[in-house]
Amino acid sequence: MTLNVALLGAGRIGKVHAKAIAATEGARLVAVADAMAEAANALASAYGAEVRSIDAIEASADVNAVIICTPTDTHADLIERFARAGKAIFCEKPVDLSVERVRSCLKVVEETGAVLMLGFNRRFDPHFRAVRAEVDAGRIGDVEMVQITSRDPGAPPPSYIKSSGGIFRDMTIHDFDMARFLLGEDVDTVMATGSALVDPEIGRLGDFDSASVILTTASGKQCTISNSRRATYGYDQRIEVHGSKGAVSAENQRPVSIEVATADGYTRPPLHDFFMTRYTEAYAAEIAAFVKSVEGGVPASPSGKDGLAALLIAEAALKSIAEKRAVSISEI
């Protein structure tokens, strides 16, 4: 069986997913939709697909699944629309910036029985998955503490901040999902702090560019997250899981993993400087997992409920900063 896929959105992330579809056995890109005709035509031509409107894709009998890479404020409506049309759905995070809107959207997904997978690509990074595999194998005993470092090389422009939903809903939300993935439990309480140390304009817009968060589960497991919008040395992505019998960690990745030794000392190449190069393998693996889920009839993961859980943590983090206290997820 070949899964015929339509891509909604031909921008930066749409191009990444188009490449992943082409590389995935059992999947074929048949249609591309985008408000920018030039972008849609270029991507469709590159992969032998057709340019179609969203209306046409919805009605297309030869489309089994859609990948949603459109602006965030369109995600929930499109998910509901294609769930009702009987298509399997892969959607970039988040479903929406509103908790209530996400809940109403997921209700439609449940009622229609649609397949919905959310784009938390870091779960599919081979290094992070290897860490999880060691945890699952019991090598480090019971998980007790997790540390996640996630720092961008530079801050986005203020125009992006206005529409992104802020650092916790846009950037840290990946770390919130990774925390749940590694802790193996839902988060119970959130304590967060945030500052604007990189760009004062970000602070004037009511957002943060530097943040620290402590997550605690009901059993007492903890995760500490460190975020910054400025890492002069590259795209900083590290995790460590500490357990009752040891620890397992994933270090930063480089385009080339070499070390040069001279009389001046030891040097290594710089880190990746962009999330798309750092997580190339993860993007490919998540699309392969989506195809496997649809064809095999197995539950999609991460699911819409995983997306809701991460958004609830983000909301709790914002409330924690505003009220200067630990916030329970049950309050959100």
Key features?
332 residues, alpha/beta, 7-stranded mixed beta sheet, 6-stranded parallel beta sheet, 15 strands, 25% strand, globular
How would you portray this structure in words?
The protein is α/β, with parallel strands linked by helices and 332 residues long. Helix content is 41%, strand content 25%. It has 13 helices and 15 strands. The protein has helices at 12-23, 37-46, 54-59, 72-84, 99-112, 126-136, 158-164, 167-170, 172-183, 200-204, 275-278, 280-296, 304-323; strands at 3-8, 27-33, 50-51, 65-68, 88-92, 116-119, 143-151, 187-195, 210-217, 222-228, 236-243, 246-250, 260-262, 265-267, 327-328. The chain has a seven-stranded mixed β-sheet. The protein has a six-stranded parallel β-sheet with strand order 3-2-1-4-5-6, with helices on both faces. A hairpin with a 4-residue loop joins strand 9 (210-217) and strand 10 (222-228). Helix 5 (99-112) packs antiparallel against helix 13 and helix 9 (172-183) crosses helix 13 (304-323). The longest helix is centred in the last third of the chain and has 20 residues, at 304-323. The N and C termini lie far apart (43 Å). The mean pLDDT is 96. One of its GO terms (molecular function) is inositol 2-dehydrogenase (NAD+) activity. Keywords: Oxidoreductase. This is Inositol 2-dehydrogenase. Residues 3-120 form the Gfo/Idh/MocA-like oxidoreductase N-terminal domain. Its EC number is 1.1.1.18.
Which secondary structure elements does this structure contain, and how are they paired or packed?
Blueprint: E1 3-8, H1 12-23, E2 27-33, H2 37-46, E3 50-51, H3 54-59, E4 65-68, H4 72-84, E5 88-92, H5 99-112, E6 116-119, H6 126-136, E7 143-151, H7 158-164, H8 167-170, H9 172-183, E8 187-195, H10 200-204, E9 210-217, E10 222-228, E11 236-243, E12 246-250, E13 260-262, E14 265-267, H11 275-278, H12 280-296, H13 304-323, E15 327-328
Parallel strand pairs: 1-2, 1-4, 2-3, 4-5, 5-6, 7-10
Antiparallel strand pairs: 7-11, 8-9, 8-15, 9-10, 11-12, 13-14
Helix pairs in contact: 1-12, 4-5, 5-13, 9-13
